Amino acid sequence: MTSRPFHHGNLRAVLLEQAEQVLREGGVDGLSLRELARRAGVSHGAPRSHFIDKQALLDALAEQGFARLTEKVGAAIATPGSFEERFRRVGRAYVDFGVDDATLMELMFAAKSNHPTPALEAAAARLFDTLDGAMPAVSGGPAELGAPVGPADSPAELRFRFKLLFAATMQGTATLITSSRITRAQGDTIVADAAAALLASGLGIRLLHSPA
Amino acid sequence: MTSRPFHHGNLRAVLLEQAEQVLREGGVDGLSLRELARRAGVSHGAPRSHFIDKQALLDALAEQGFARLTEKVGAAIATPGSFEERFRRVGRAYVDFGVDDATLMELMFAAKSNHPTPALEAAAARLFDTLDGAMPAVSGGPAELGAPVGPADSPAELRFRFKLLFAATMQGTATLITSSRITRAQGDTIVADAAAALLASGLGIRLLHSPA
DNA sequence: CTATTTACTAGACACTGTCTAGTCTGGCGA
DNA sequence: TCGCCAGACTAGACAGTGTCTAGTAAATAG
């Protein structure tokens, strides 16, 4: 090892960077704090100064992942085009991210037994807020979807349900591709079909064509 | 320990059973071959006779999971009722399974780096075949969905796309609930909305109402 | 310049998965 | 019926891991 000042000065960032690379190469099983320390050229206990736990490191990775995905989705929304085109672009961006960084995606949407970090929670919330930008404009009127429809179904509520349905479909598509259950091309088809089906359904039409 | 014949006689089944319980209690991180051996009252090396690897144990668990899920989906399909009711029942069964056995579900749909076991592959295929039973009847005519539609889009192809879209939505819903991104009730809403949106879309209407 | 807080080192511990060599035994061929 | 042998199981070892602890170096605050 080349001589290094006692204080690394950048350890936290380097560890996260190496961790993401290791995740891509060998999955979460191949990720060990000690190897990360070795790669960074520090002792095996050094990471503890920045991450109390291995879980803390994983949480930080997930948080970073949410930020990156939010950025990609935001870019897809910002690109001009018809509503359906934008819809498809967002879906493809979401799915592509989930497939290319499959292990990271699993970390982001893993079943949490212990209560999640507020920072992680916030990063996830930011993604879902960003998703709002891909939704059609709000309109009034009762819903035409399948769930029990009552007077409480405000336009905002409909928009929210529209978003949830969209998010679930993209999320599931990424999972199915990742687990080799379907191909990437089939995933693209799902995205396109989802966009068409959602828009063709009562809610989509209503949201698109009704006066605001 | 009470005396036990040298040959356990049932070790493999007991290990799998204990493993499923441990998965439910402490997630995949809490699962160790050595503890399973301890619970079964055998030495730490004994599991190796039945599972060459820890991964082999996990694969067997996933395979069992696919079988159980297939059974539940099959039962939901078999129950009489309108098409949309059946659709919702299947969706709810799928999502419920994925939420109640979240860790097992993650195992079943994990990103596989190494090539998957043929048995596991077959179990997964069986689930997707069973899903066909929840789809509407096939009809002729061109597609009305969003993906590029050409003369190659046979009715069977449309049915298949319908199924993929359905599967992805259910899968994603389960993941979103499991990761605490949405509530179980919101998951139910997604299922209902998905059923309605799919049926209201061109493909659903065509498949339902066209002459066979 | 001193004191404190932070980053890091080094050693230890319990635990894990996996490999190996050896022991037991149920069931098969002779 | 007997011998034996493949398969189930034991026990020990090894490298690797996450985490804890005590101590050291250095950046920073007073």
Automatic annotation (TrEMBL), chains A, B:
Residues 9-69 form the HTH tetR-type domain. Keywords: DNA-binding. The keyword DNA-binding applies. Pfam families: TetR_N. Residues 32-51 bind DNA. It comes from the Bacteria. GO terms for molecular function: DNA-binding transcription factor activity; transcription cis-regulatory region binding. InterPro entries: Homeodomain-like_sf, HTH-type_TetR-like_transc_reg, HTH_TetR, Tet_transcr_reg_TetR-rel_C_sf. SUPFAM superfamilies: Homeodomain-like, Tetracyclin repressor-like, C-terminal domain. This is TetR family transcriptional regulator.
